[in-house]
Amino acid sequence: MNLLFFLAQFISTVPITAVLVFVLLKLLARVNRRGGVDGVGRAVLVTGCDSGFGHQLAGALDQKGFVVFAGCLSPDGEGAQNLIRESSGNLKVLKLDVTKEEEVQRAKKTVQENLPEKGLWAVVNNAGVSDWAEIEWSNVEDFHSMADINLFGAIRTAIAFLPLVRAAKGRMVFVSSIFAFFHCLNMAAYSVSKRGLEAFADCLRVEMASFGVKVSIIQPGNFSGATNILKTKTALDLWVKLDEDRKKIFNRRYVEVAHDYFKSTCTTGFKTAEPVVTAMMHALTSTRPKSRYLLVSALDTVFFKLYPLLPTVLADSVFCFSSMYRTRAEMLFVK
Description:
There is one protein chain. Helix content is about 55%, strand content about 10%. By secondary structure, the protein is α/β, with parallel strands linked by helices. It has a 7-stranded parallel beta sheet with strand order 3-2-1-4-5-6-7, sandwiched between helices. β2 (about 65-70), α4 (about 80-85) and β3 (about 90-95) form a beta-alpha-beta unit. The longest helix is centred in the middle third of the chain and has 21 residues, at about 190-210. It is globular and about 65 Å long.
């Protein structure tokens, strides 16, 4: 009763004008968020525009009036040429392999020479590749090549263009994955590259806050059906890479089962890249972009929000519910 009396007394002493001012400020903030950033006079560099997320984002930015520098691995390829045909004169395709310092510097020179009046507003580090295999089916080069594109390619691009983005007090966006924090079978090399990418982006966000630059991380779930990021390979491709000792442990039948399971899992995800592109656009144009955008199904959202908070023993035990993990334990030859 004393608590209720105290609350009643407190509420009665709050001036009605203060409440009205608070509500008004909230409404104004909401209006400002809706307004967003105008694309006219601003440029955005997007890497990995040959297909997938980058390809669709480049077109969406062009429609919003941004000057778009679309980095493509193959400027003469079908994806790049489609962008040129379907977009306005404000979109420029650049030859950009993020693993090559000379190409990044050449792209920077081109961007500097063609900047609109408000400068380079943002860089979207989207270029990336994905692959899958158990750790013992891989070698150091598999990890290195994955990291060279997904991690060091993004770092190389970000460092080169950061002075331009800082001058515009703009945005840095990094396309990561749920596998940056969700460790599971077959995704070690990819997870290493994406976890490193998020560490870099987190550090950059803290450093750039002083300069008014906002950094966002995009965390897509299963969008392999909406992009061509996943390499196509057969069970035979996996098998021939194994030496004789590993073939005794990982029998061929298990490799085939693992391949079929992974392939079928990839077909159950999102069929369109629209949720990711929408999140990217929000990160680039909202006055209050999020630090992270988790893009999974509504059912999976609760799980992936809670998973990083679980103690290791509980996080690892989650996989006991997977039929593939049980099959693996039953099929593998263990002495």
